[in-house]
Write a structure and sequence with these properties.
The structure is a single chain. With about 130 residues, this protein is mainly beta. Helix content is about 0%, strand content about 50%. The protein has strands spanning about 5, 10-15, 20-25, 35-40, 45-50, 60, 70-75, 80-85, 90-100, 115, 120-125. The strands form 2 sheets. Strands 2, 4, 5, 6, 9, 10 and 11 form a 7-stranded mixed beta sheet that branches. The chain has a 4-stranded antiparallel beta sheet with strand order 1-3-8-7, with no helix packed on it. Strand 7 and strand 8 form a beta hairpin.
Length: about 130
């Protein structure tokens, strides 16, 4: 059974940084492309960032490009989201997701492309 456990959320002031982690268990980590999504109350879940199965490709939403960095560590079965220069509009529940689909260098950007999801971690950015 595949499990994704997020951590690292919290409260931070605008301009600050947080690093989210997502630990994957139950399947070989390198078999997954990984992604981060976020959701605020009353809104659809939106794509944030993705990294391909072998880590060779990354993709970012325009709203976070240049501020957020996605990375993965196969030895630790973990994907990270480093978030810098945080803004109040980044406040959301952040979810990590794992995809078994696509080619090795493809970084999925759509919800339907992901097969497994974590429980989410809250990020709150105060102004």
């Amino acid at each position: 059974q595949v499990q994704l456990i997020e951590s690292g959320g919290g409260l931070v002031q605008a301009g600050g940084s947080l690093r989210l982690s997502c630990a994957v268990s139950g399947r070989t980590f390198s078999s997954f492309a990984m992604g981060w999504f976020r959701q605020t109350p009353g809104k659809e879940r939106e794509f944030v960032a993705a990294i391909s199965r072998l880590g060779g490709s990354t993709y970012y939403a325009d709203s976070v490009k240049g501020r957020f960095t996605i990375s993965s560590d196969n030895a630790k079965n973990t994907v990270y989201l480093q978030m810098n220069s945080l803004k109040p509009e980044d406040t959301a529940v952040y979810y990590c997701a794992a995809s078994e689909r696509g080619l090795n260098y493809y970084a999925p950007q759509q919800e339907w492309e992901y097969d497994y999801w974590g429980q989410g971690t809250q990020v709150t950015v105060s102004s």
